[in-house]
Amino acid sequence: MKKYEYKKEHFKYYKFLEALRKSGDTNMFGATPYLMERFSLKRDEASNILAEWMDSYDELETVLNFNSVAPLSVRTETIRIWGDDEYDED
Fold first, then answer.
1. Would you say residue 58 lies in a domain?
2. Which of 5, 57, 63, 68 is most buried by a 10 A CB count?
3. Which domain holds residue 46?
């Protein structure tokens, strides 16, 4: 039984997390600060979004077509590589 369910309004965050995962720049258990910085979220909100993504990963992989998500490089000067629309809901 899942503790967290994904939320459609969080799709842009899940796409960001998948791009971050593909980059290999961080262990995903440490992804909360990346969400906080990129989207100006508070720690508890970012932690809950990360937990939703982790707990619903298999389902989200299909729903959001994670195969089409490109890796994100956070080693550049800024996390913002694409425009905000890259992570907007479809």
1. yes
2. 57
3. 8-87
Helix (H, G, I), strand (E, B) or coil at 19: helix
Query: Does 3 fall in a domain?
Result: no
**Which amino acid does the sequence have at 62?**
T
Contact 17, 28 (CB under 8 A): yes
34-65 burial, b at 16+ Cβ within 10 Å, e below that, comes to bbeebbebeeeebebbbebbeebbeebeeebe
Query: Which conformational region is residue 65 in: left (phi greater than 0), alpha (psi within -120 to 50 degrees), or beta?
Result: left
Cβ neighbour number for residue 32 with a 10 Å cutoff: 19
Listed in sequence order, the DSSP H helices in 1-90 are 11-23, 32-39, 43-55, 57-63
Q: Which mean pLDDT values do the consecutive 10-residue runs of the chain (90 residues) have?
A: 85 93 90 94 97 93 84 54 45
Number of domains in the chain: 1
